[in-house]
Amino acid sequence: MRVYRNLDSVPAGFAPCALTIGNFDGLHAGHRLILRRMGTLARERGWKPSALTFSPHPTRIVAPERTPLLLTSVEERVELMRGEGIEQVVILPFVPEVAALTPEQFGRTIVSARLGARAIFVGENFHFGHGQAGNVRVLEGLGRELGFLTEIVPAARCRGRVVSSSSIRELIRSGNVSLARRLLERPHALAGAVVGGRGVGSKETVPTLNLETHAEVIPANGVYITRTWDLDLPRHWTSVTNIGYRPTFGDSPGRTIETFLLDPLRDETPARIRVQFLKRIRPEIKFEDSGALKSRILHDVRIAQRYFRRECAWSGRAGGAQ
Length: 322
Known about the structure:
This protein is an alpha/beta fold. It has helices at 29-45, 59-62, 74-83, 96-99, 103-114, 136-146, 165-173, 177-184, 200-204, 290-320; strands at 2-4, 17-21, 48-55, 88-93, 117-123, 149-153, 157-158, 161-162, 188-195, 209-213, 222-230, 236-244, 256-261, 272-282.
């Protein structure tokens, strides 16, 4: 995959391409539907499957008070696109000059003249140009005039709801990470450095890895079944993760993310981890003392172990059926 961080760095060989345009926050099932459809046509026509995205999120420039918390960084979005077979990504700096472009100017100068798009793939609610004045009908008109195909991909649905970044944010922030996983087609994850704690867990309950993350969308306080990955070495563990304020001890300086590994940590403690959230076990609870808390943690561990045994058994049956 080739990544270009401004239009000036885009080479003449970028064209011909099939192009999708958007913020793609989370790169959820709806986004993936667009990317897969585009990839199919691009391979049939000999075009390069490509994406145009923006940094920062356009609302940071045009309506800062409405800027959403983001599910993924632009770097994470690019990596997820790579997994879907996208060959070229342009990360367009969203500056006031770009925000001021009319839909016609955006289509002519960027999509057609600069990127040489032969086909554009977008969702039903796509808007572009100054004041979001352009919609899919405007895009289709520009396509007829400028010579590119426009394909409007229907919204993805899951359990009767339209898949959207905003709905996924709300699911995660309410603790429903299992449904969010379905809409994302992957677990929501938090990544960052492992930092020192106060040592209470290793002495009174169970030892944990304390995660410091810059992620913007954090699951609701509570205990979760998770899977933890070392970002520097090829190893991972099943785990249980608590998010909250440690009410039993009453000494938390702020919200903490503490992960207990269910598998042995045979080597050195990881410096950086990614924690994938699979299912919520319970909300955060204040216990009478550390003994009661430890007892409940061990109960949570047994719930998680049963979950992973079922997952392993299901994977084995699915593999045998192929």
